[in-house]
Amino acid sequence: MPSSLDKSSSSFRYQFPHPTWRTLRNFVLLSLTLVTIIFLNNKHKEIIIRSPIYQESYNNNLNNIIVIVDGEQQARSLQPIYCQLSKQSGNKLVHIVVTGKDRGLCGSQLKNLNSELSECSVFVHDLNIRDSSPDDDTVLSSVFKETIHIINKIKPVVLIYAKDLNNKAIRGVDAAALTTSQINENFTKIAIPIEYVSNTKFIADLPLEALKNWNTPKFHLQVVTQNRAASLKRLVDSLNSSIYLGDNVPLTINIDEDGDEKTVKYVPNLYWPFGKKDIRHRLVQGGLIAAVVESYYPTNDNDYGFILEDDIELSPFFYIWAKYNILKYRYGPDRILSNRMFGVSLYNSKHIELTLPKHTKFNAALTLGPTKFNRQSPYLCQIPSSWGSVVFPEIWREFHYYLTARLKDIEGPNLQEINVPDSRSNRWHNSWKRFFIELIYLRGYVMLYPNYKNFVSLSTNHHEEGVHVHLKNGTPKKGFLLPLMNKDIISEGLPGGVLPDYRNLPIMDLFGRVVSLKKIVDRGHDLHNKISLCPPNDIATLTYNPKDLLCIDKTKKISDSENVSEIVSENVNKNNNENNNRNDKENNNDDENKPLDKSKSKKSKKHKNSKNSKKIKNKLQISKTNNEAIASFHRRIKSIKRLKQMMPPVNPNLKLD
């Protein structure tokens, strides 16, 4: 047996007496090496739940979503969102980043937490932040550095987290997200205020394209008021009690010239912490048409306006409802189909106001019952809601041009007469809705309406005395009051818990009848062909320019005006001739029958003077009529020129078939 000490060597070397000991030595050395590596890289360890495709998570061709949580409470709040996002089909992966055990939750704990739910397949990353220092800046700095590191590694298109400025770790996440968004335009941060995380379950239903545009739409609240200070305060109180998900939401109060003292004094002092507050007080009384339509004009195609009259009241969840719909239908794949949608109603309608001879009761659930659609499905309808709605920029801008042209025509030449078939709105001479309904009918536009059970609504109307409302004994009607949504059932109250795809939404016409999109577009084209010389656009082509609706045969109209002038002139000449003949005949009779006495002579002279004065009056009246006809003709010519100058420029790429 060889000696354990080799004395023939120049140095002593210890040798294991048996191969088993050499194996043990190698195992110990390997273990020490692994421990050293783990220790050196302990700041960022990863628990891989879907290991077969782990390497794909760093493939730039994939869209990655990161959700950062700090502690178990945040994890449980955000878990329904990120687990549902992981189930969506599409070219994306979901990563969950935890701040570490010292912050209340490590990666392995989150893995166990996710295992409680079925099909929550996500990647988990642990920042392992050390929180032994009492200095908040140390934690903030560590979280900031590690978040920047993981963002640069995973390259997410969306980062979601619960914003809490009292949380030192989340302040680090917020700083990292802000820094990244400033240098990477393809990066979107969704910072949900911690107190409203439970109100954002709808995020899980949004496609990736919509999530990327979370911060793109901008919303403005436009309140229209005049002399109902108590009503205005009720509306503002409901606005202040609503949830805006951390968004900046400006408020504008539009007061007509005849605003009362109470209203004018209340507005400057009202509290608004959610964005800029503006006050507009008209110098000249504009009436309801001007007050509503001029209250909002979009700055771009991502600028949305809530039109709110002061006799309505809002649910705390009205903003969530509007943003959910707009993100899904305007910024997701459905945006190609929703180009005729002009807004989202907050009011869950229970009346159809356009039927003749008066409005009728309506229940969308009963109407949808016999159809293929779910009874509680939201639906598209051609009726514009004036009791709380958000309108879309392209179509509201088109309406401005259309309304300007229509009002000028009505006040001047009356070249065009537009009546929507069988609609009560044709009688509403002083209503902005009359003209909006004309445009909606001609184009086949639609508005999306809520349809929650028992008429639960995002807005209600108190139907108080106003321009178009006249009450008996001053008592408001309660038929238009609806129960406001006081508990968040935005998602829960929808069929399947989500908004239907746009193609699966039912469509109703102005009278609450279920129809197809082609049907309402064809109806609009039929009226279009009757009132305009320009042909309608193709069903898939929209320019949001009303010029094609206002094409008039100017030659025919001028010819008609000239004919009228000629007819008037002929009638004038004919009347002059007849009067002259009549007067000559009367004079001849007077000569033949001269009075025999003075009294008869005086009567005759008086009678003659009277007839002469009548003759002069007739000539003056005829002259006046003639002048008016000529003046009217010239006014029509000028109006045609103004109408041409007033219209917006035509899209050069537009082809009219």
UniProtKB/TrEMBL annotation:
Composition-biased stretches (Polar residues): 620-629
Compositional bias per record (Basic and acidic residues), positions renumbered to this chain: 581-599
Compositionally biased tracts (Basic residues): 600-618
Biased segments, Low complexity type: 570-580
Region spans: Disordered: 570-630
Lineage: Eukaryota, Fungi, Fungi incertae sedis, Mucoromycota, Glomeromycotina
Name of the protein in its database record: Glycosyl transferase family 2 protein
SUPFAM superfamilies: Nucleotide-diphospho-sugar transferases
Keyword terms: Transferase
A GO term, aspect molecular function: transferase activity
InterPro entries referenced in this protein's UniProt entry, alphabetically: Nucleotide-diphossugar_trans (IPR029044)
